[in-house]
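W.,

You were right to be curious about this one. When I first looked at the sequence I had no strong expectations either way, so I just let the prediction run and decided to look at it fresh. Below is the sequence, 212 residues in total, followed by the output.
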Amino acid sequence: MLIHMKKIWFGVLMAMAFTIGASSSFAQNEQVPAAANDVAQVSTWSDLAGLTPESPFYFLDRLSEFLRELFTFSPEAKVKLKIEFAKERIAEIKVMLEDEDTNTDDVDEAQSLLVEDMQDAQDIANEEEIEDESLNTLLDDEIDDNDNNEDVKQTFKEAKNDLDEHQTEIDNEDNQEDAKIEDGDKQETKIRNSEDTEDSEDTQQKNEREDD
């Protein structure tokens, strides 16, 4: 009975993932085409961004990501998935900042989600000792590549600062934990030395009594 229920729930979740993916694609296709200038570049960003926080269908995009993460199990795959989400957030920010009428709250939401995705990837990588160069270069590359757009560059600088602060907090916590372990080892060594000294003194006293 339990196995049967698990199969049912698995089927329901897979159906939801398919439906949400299809709905997200449909909503994405309903977006207004990019402006004429820089069409090729903006089109590439739009393709990667898909829906943005400006869209009323954005929750479908987020729900689809949640389901993808739900069915991702290995730490390495989770890191890569979070980096993939972060790249999508980057594209969303670029697309929105190309539009002068974009609501800054929508950009802030995408920036916040970008930092969240990168922090999640960072936390998993640190905990599982996974090395992924994208964690160190993704935002730096975007900052360097957007000298011609100060708004985009500043957005990624702020995200990078938030990420660096998060990494500093992690490093400080690790250092504090290492210091506690080191203090514990020193205390344990001190106790052992004290016990050895007491044993030595007891042995010496015993030998003196035997000589008497």
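Here's what jumped out at me. Residues 123 and 170 are 8 Å apart (CA to CA). And, maybe more interesting for your project: The mean pLDDT is 76.

Coffee later to discuss?

I.
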